[in-house]
Write a structure and sequence with these properties.
The chain is an all-alpha fold. Helix content is 83%, strand content 0%. The chain contains 4 helices and no strands. The protein is globular, with a radius of gyration of 17 Å. The protein starts with a helix and ends with a helix.
């Protein structure tokens, strides 16, 4: 009985590490893609009105990739693990933006970002678990 508990605890710790790594990977991908988007805004005639759409798309793509990477070696609970990657990602982003911007507020855009993050993470987790 003790060995089963130790194995379960070790598996939980391993999954948590994968989820945190997936969240960190998502943030790095977001930074790279936002840098590319900002260069496009600066050096092309791309309109700034496209910013909300691009930010949501970049966020979803980053979380999808991070949750897929984090759940590739997990054989179960891809939906939950992926959603956790999305949740951790969006909480870190909003925490950082509230510290940097100093005017944190929840509005409809924030709610859309939150929901898109969790859904993208869940989809990435499902794909990662089922990838062969």
């Amino acid at each position: 009985m003790v060995k089963m508990k130790e194995m379960n605890s070790e598996g939980t710790k391993s999954n948590l590490i994968r989820i945190l790594k997936g969240s960190a990977f998502s943030i790095v991908i977001t930074l790279v893609l936002l840098f590319i988007y900002s260069a496009l805004l600066t050096y092309t005639s791309l309109n700034e009105n496209t910013m909300p759409v691009f930010v949501i798309a970049i966020t979803a793509i980053s979380i999808l990739a991070g949750s897929l990477i984090s759940s590739i070696n997990i054989k179960k609970n891809g939906l939950t693990n992926g959603a956790m990657v999305g949740l951790i990602y969006i909480l870190v982003i909003y925490l950082l933006s509230s510290i940097i911007g100093q005017n944190f507020s929840l509005n409809m855009y924030s709610i859309i970002m939150f929901v898109a993050s969790v859904i993208a993470g869940a989809i990435g987790g499902i794909i990662g678990v089922n990838k062969k």
